[in-house]
Design goal:
Radius of gyration: 12 Å
Largest sheet: none
Helix content: over 70%
Shape: elongated
Number of helices: 3
Length: 57
């Protein structure tokens, strides 16, 4: 687990972008029906992988 955490910490911006893309795909596939839940899950994952969302909006 230590190596994975180090890799995530080193590439935090890319991880956040990947989580955003995954959330966008899930939202698209569900037709926006679960938008709030998906956003909440993406935000929680981003908090666990570092300082939170590093992507500009």
């Amino acid at each position: 687990m230590g190596k994975a955490k180090a890799l995530v910490d080193k590439h935090e911006k890319q991880v956040d972008q990947g989580l955003d893309q995954a959330g966008d795909q899930a939202d698209q596939r569900t037709g926006g029906k679960y938008d709030k839940q998906i956003d909440k899950g993406v935000d929680a994952a981003q908090r666990r992988t570092g300082e939170g969302d590093t992507s500009p909006r």
